[in-house]
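tool=predict chain=A
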Amino acid sequence: MSPEIWPGLVRLYWRLALVPAAWIPVVALYGDRVMYWATALYWGSLVFAYTLGKLTCKDRLAVALHLGVALLTSLMSLVAPPERVVQGLSGEDWRLGVMAFYTVGAYAFAAFAGWPGLGLGLAYVLLAPWPQEETRFLVAAGGLLAGIGGLSVAAMIQRLQALQSLIQNEALTDSFTGLANRRSLERDFSRLQALAAREGLSLVLSLWDLDNLKAVNDREGHQAGDALYRVGGDEFVGLHLGLRDGASLEARVHARFPSVSVGFSPAGGRELLQVLEAADGLMYRKKGDKGPL
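tool=predict ok
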């Protein structure tokens, strides 16, 4: 399973992006031309970005696109004369609310878009036609601090994803050979079994008992069996999608490793343990030394 941190945050963002719907009645009652345009731009870009993300599977980029537009709409309200934004409400109170929206947006924009998001957010502020020069730098300072916070969160998420991948690989990999382990086999068997049924293909499980494993591993390296799963001791399992002739597989294995014992069984619709037991029985009958798996 791949790391789910960013996909989870993307899903959370699309839900939170709907929260400003609570302000639509306020906009309808007290808004003026600038607020109308800003609201239309926000919701139009939300629909566009969400659709783009679904069509391209670039969800993080789609979120960054909408955040960039959302920041632009908040700045439209901040730099415009108050009478062109709202009517019947205190302009200062309205600006405080929009400023809070901008700060949160700058934080999220930098988190999703990285350094380009931080730079673009600052460019918005510095190039906007502010009526008072000191306001420009006050908003820029707040946006810079928020953006740095967003970058820090993005860096932390990257580290968490790297750690999660490392832990996952350790859990699914045999430390001695570097091959996938039994946990990987259990995960992949059901997936390949479903794929075989869906595509009308055969799926064969092979069970190998490789004598003198350490010597073979030292001589051949990990690439000699990179399609294998080590299930314990000197025993390995292979999953072969589309293979119909187990005997040909056995001949190829013996050509490379004469001392190996091989058993195989078609997977069909059976459970993994049943298929393993069938392959194990065949392998030990060939060895003349039947024993437990």
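DSSP finds eleven helices and four strands in the chain. The radius of gyration is 30 Å.
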